[in-house]
Design brief:
Layout lengths: L12 H11 L8 H14 L10 E5 L2 H11 L7 E4 L5 H9 L3 E4 L11 H7 L4 E5 L10 H11 L2 E5 L19 E5 L12 E5 L2 H10 L8 H6 L18 H35 L26 E4 L5 H10 L15 H7 L7 H9 E4 L7 H15 L3
Parallel strand pairs: 2-3, 2-4, 4-5, 5-6
Antiparallel strand pairs: 1-7, 6-7, 8-9
Helix pairs in contact: 1-9, 2-9, 3-4, 3-7, 9-13, 10-13
The structure holds pyridoxal-5'-phosphate.
Pyridoxal-5'-phosphate (PLP) binds next to α3 and α4.
């Protein structure tokens, strides 16, 4: 049986070479590689726009910690409400809860799974302090609509951009309209160092605070303290240990230089899947009662982090098993998180509150997606989906 993995990372000799060079340096952790990667990612985010000012980028140990730091940098705390989406990974809501604030979920758009700006508008209240959209699967949420709402109600926006740095929609990129955008370099992400993250912000005062918050809240990093003459440092506020390391940054720098080419490969695979799946399973082109299509609608330039399809209601888990039995790697991104035990109990939410996110959560399957996926492998995935779907 030919196995098709859900994900295969792309790190090879180029990355290993740069990583080995860092081993010859003194500072394996927060040092010059991190600083260079931060500047390069900032430049990448404004690529092709000569007159634009690059955002400041702050490397973190993960996107989860980056989300938390970005909220802290906006002084989120007890009594505050942050509006977000239940169609995401638990980390999005956890960051809010860790600071003693309350996540206020709203439903998503049926055709994309992205947070619905109309639902956001309806949920804004006196305690709302900020918005946390998620650029699900690698498509930008409707940032123009969300920025207009945020401006009207004096809210900040922290974008959960775990699913990509390559995203663009209506000429808008992560971190451009939001006050901060947070990226993930977790093991399965488009850029990876196993675990890592970064925050991009156009506000210098937020960036300065993030630099301190990721490093315990102290006034100087270890590299600053020991680079030349010893300098005393002070503890300015209560921070976290949540920095990126030089070893990891060296891996990310090499991948960043290849990211446009890799995104193009993902785009080709997405198009191949779309065409062949629709041919093999024509039912994928129909809409369900809630208006959820078999394949998500395209919005702008996707990072194509994940390729998802929506099985018929009640048949998702059987299709997952069928794919697993035939050696096809799968994931579920995501079961709507307001129904996960802890969040359901803590926030007193029940099934039926967000019908669209719940339907997507009950139907969604992610199939293998990575730049080197061969056509023969994609064909096999499509064949197995079709045989499972049609009950063969
Ligand atoms: C939407 C979303 N947000 C946040 C995270 C957390 O990222 P990390 O694992 O880098 O902390 C993930 C990771 O899978 C994610 O998919």
């Amino acid at each position: 049986m030919t196995r098709v993995d859900f994900y295969r990372h792309q790190l090879g000799e180029d990355e290993a070479r740069e990583w080995r060079k860092v081993l010859d340096t003194t500072f394996l952790t927060l040092g010059p590689q991190v600083g260079t990667f931060e500047r390069e990612l900032g430049a990448y985010l404004i690529r092709g726009r000569e007159s634009a000012e690059a955002p400041r980028v702050v490397g973190t140990s993960s996107c989860s910690m980056g989300l938390l730091l970005a909220l802290r940098a906006h002084d989120v705390g007890p009594g505050d409400e942050i509006i977000t989406t239940p169609m995401t990974f638990a980390a999005t809501a956890n960051a809010i809860l860790h600071l003693g604030a309350a996540p206020v979920f709203v439903d998503v758009e049926p055709d994309t799974g992205l947070i619905d700006p109309n639902a956001v508008r309806a949920a804004i209240g006196p305690k709302t302090k900020g918005l946390m959209p998620v650029h699900l699967y690698g498509q930008l949420a409707d940032m123009r609509a969300l920025r207009a709402l945020a401006d009207r109600h004096h809210l900040f926006i922290v974008e959960d951009s775990a699913h990509g740095i390559e995203i663009e929609r209506d000429g808008i990129r992560p971190g451009e309209l939001g006050d901060a955008a947070v990226f993930s370099f977790y093991a399965t992400k488009n850029l990876t160092c196993g675990d890592g993250g970064a925050i991009a912000t156009k506000h210098a005062h937020i960036a300065d605070r993030l630099v301190r918050l990721r490093n315990h809240g102290v006034s100087k990093s270890a590299a600053d303290r020991h680079g030349g003459q010893y300098q005393h440092w002070d503890l300015i506020e209560l921070g976290y240990k949540a920095n990126l390391t030089d070893l990891d940054a060296s891996l990310l720098r090499v991948q960043l230089s290849k990211s446009e080419a890799k995104r193009e490969q993902r785009e080709q695979i997405a198009r191949y899947y779309e065409a062949h799946l629709l041919e093999a399973v024509p039912a994928l082109s129909s809409l369900s009662g809630c208006g959820v299509p078999g394949l998500i609608a395209r919005r702008g330039r996707s990072s194509h982090h994940l390729f998802t399809l929506h099985a018929p209601l009640g048949q998702r888990d059987a299709l997952l098993s069928h794919l697993g039995e035939h050696g096809i790697g799968t994931a579920v991104n995501y079961r709507a998180i307001h129904l996960l035990t802890y969040l359901q109990e803590r926030l007193h939410l029940s099934r039926g509150t967000f019908p669209i996110a719940e339907e997507i959560g009950d139907r969604t399957i992610s199939i293998p997606m990575f730049p080197t996926l061969e056509h023969s492998e994609a064909d096999r995935v499509v064949d197995v989906v079709a045989s499972g779907w049609n009950g063969r």
